[in-house]
Amino acid sequence: MPYITRAIERYLQECLADTPVVVITGPRQSGKTTITRHLLELPGLKETGSYLTLDDENILSIARNDPIGLLRQQSRPIIIDEVQRAPELIRTIKLLVDEDRQPGSFILTGSADLMTLPTLADSLAGRAEFVTLYPFSQPELKQLSFNKGQSDIIQQLLSPNFVPKTSSSLDYDEVISAIVCGGYPEVQQRSAGRRARWYRSYTDAIIRRDINEVFQLQKLDEMAQLLKLLAAISSDALNYSNLGKAVQMDSKSVQKYVSALENLYLVKRIPGWHRNELKRAIKQAKVHFVDTGLLCVLRGINEASIQADRNLLGPMMETWVCSELMKAIAVSEEDCQLYHYRDKDKREVDFILSGYNGQATGIEVKAGMTIKKEMFAALEMLIKAGSIQRGVIVYNGDKVLPFSDKLIAVPVGCLFCPSGN
Predict the structure, then answer these.
(1) At 349, is the secondary structure helix, strand, or coil?
(2) How confident is the model at residue 392 (pLDDT cuts 50, 70, 90)?
(3) Cis peptide before 67 (omega within 30 of 0)
(4) 3-class DSSP state of 288
(5) Residue 416: strand, helix, or coil
(6) pLDDT band with cut points at 50, 70 and 90 for residue 40
(7) How far, in Å, CA of 278 to CA of 307, rounded?
(8) In the chain, what are the domains?
(9) What is the pLDDT of residue 276?
(10) What is the pLDDT of residues 167-186, one digit of tens each?
(11) Helices marked H in 162-312 — which ranges?
């Protein structure tokens, strides 16, 4: 498969120009090694850089027993893959950076969220920039332009004057295909059967190694069962007590295991949106899978089953939109967070995109091709309460439909894959 440009590349180059340590985290097989090797091809880096992978057991052994000796003999920049396997290296990197704070000295990759590992995060404070690399987004797969400011859908969604382009490079069948395939590079050129086999092997490897090695969690069979249960409720509210009963674990243990799956970038918890003016809001989090290809395999869903039963598409599409929003946030110039809204009156909004400056946009996902005014009811309520500034419905139609100056319906393809970008 030829190299595909990643949206994060420009930002990574900026980080390397002014920060001693750049940390690229994300799920295994999302392309972290590929992009770091690509960075070594940049002028001035290819001739001098070193590459170490801690998936090599020999290098891992040296890293754990003689980290100073290992790193002092390397030429900079030093790229270290899967750094979470040897936390001992972090203190040595801190020591070497404090001796020489040359920008771009270290590029570290990890398949666990290193910011959740206190020792690692504290040691790198003020010395490192953390970047998340998810599996391919739709703009990356379509190789759209990533020029600064031109493709920042997050900034556009938060803008009070948001009007997307009216043409899309995705039709209805392509949306279903994208959902079922997922974004991992390894599956892009595989048949449906080969994709499913890869996803099963992938999850088994993570559960059998990373869950135990990184988080020291022992109940691996229960973890595999829990992952399937989470797949069954993806896009729904998290209830740790109910999950605990199903896997015969207490709710605190379930919460710890779900946290581990989140830190390995398999699932994402979306917190409930609440403000002082929203007295009846429920703070309970929802869960989404980071990749819908993995989700579909765990649930036994394929393109034919979605075409035969359109009711399957709703939760799958909601999780897919969540995944694309997460990927867009990771490369956006805008500092923002993703929430959902649900209240005691059973009013829901799938996503609330909240910007650093207080701007917030509500996003509802509809799998159908027709939009009615009543579908905006929950969004209108939040606008009237002053909690959000505008509401967007993402749907499978082919027209951008403004319902008012603050409410608009947008084809999903126009949002993530506009033509002529």
Answers:
(1) strand
(2) very high
(3) no
(4) strand
(5) helix
(6) confident
(7) 39
(8) 9-133 (3.40.50.300), 139-416 (no CATH)
(9) 65
(10) 777 888 999 999 999 999 99
(11) 172-181, 192-205, 211-215, 220-232, 240-247, 251-263, 292-299, 303-308
